Amino acid sequence: MYRYSETDWPIFRVYAPADAVTDAEFEEHLTRLARVLQRKEPHILSIQLSATSWLSMERRDRIRIHTNAVKPLADAYQLGIAVIVPSAIQRAMASALLWMAKPTCPSSVFSDVAAADAWSLELLGHRGLKGALRAENKGVSTPRDMR
User: Is residue 112 part of a domain?
Assistant: First the structure.
């Protein structure tokens, strides 16, 4: 099951499961991402994949459909997309997917959370939102708010 954290808002963290998820769980995940956009608050999406995270062709297509459906909100409120991927092969695939999806916001693939967070904080600083990080959690990821 996917887990989520907003403790470092405006960085919205997604933790992909190591185990396979059902189609219903995957749809629930896409719904959760859409609800974050529907709040109409600027944020960065930070997705941490596990070494075993893998998307089938059908799920990649479902992501494409979802991305097109939420595009107006994503264009307005998603300031960046950071994807953290442990393996080099997965990073190459994630980079190719982002290149094909062509999000309008900055996006990048990282091998570790620290690099992704530094990039995210830089983006927030350029938007004047770096100070918006919740004071009690600046730069510290905690399990609170995870599901």
Answer: yes
What global pTM score does this model have?
Answer: 0.81
Segment 20-42, tens digit of pLDDT: 889 999 999 999 999 999 999 99
**Would the CA dihedral through 78, 80, 84, 89 be positive or negative?**
positive
Do 15 and 9 touch, CB atoms closer than 8 A? Answer: no
Phi/psi zone of residue 138: left (φ > 0), alpha (ψ -120 to 50 degrees), beta? beta
In total, how many domains does the chain have?
1
Domain that holds residue 56: 3-137
Contact 44, 11 (CB under 8 A): yes
Specify if 147 maps to a domain: no
Helix (H, G, I), strand (E, B) or coil at 13: strand
pLDDT > 70 in the chain, percent: 79
For residue 142, being part of any structural domain is answered with no
Please identify which residue in the block is written with the tokens 């185990």: 19
DSSP string across 32-55: HHHHHHHTT--EEEEEE--TT---
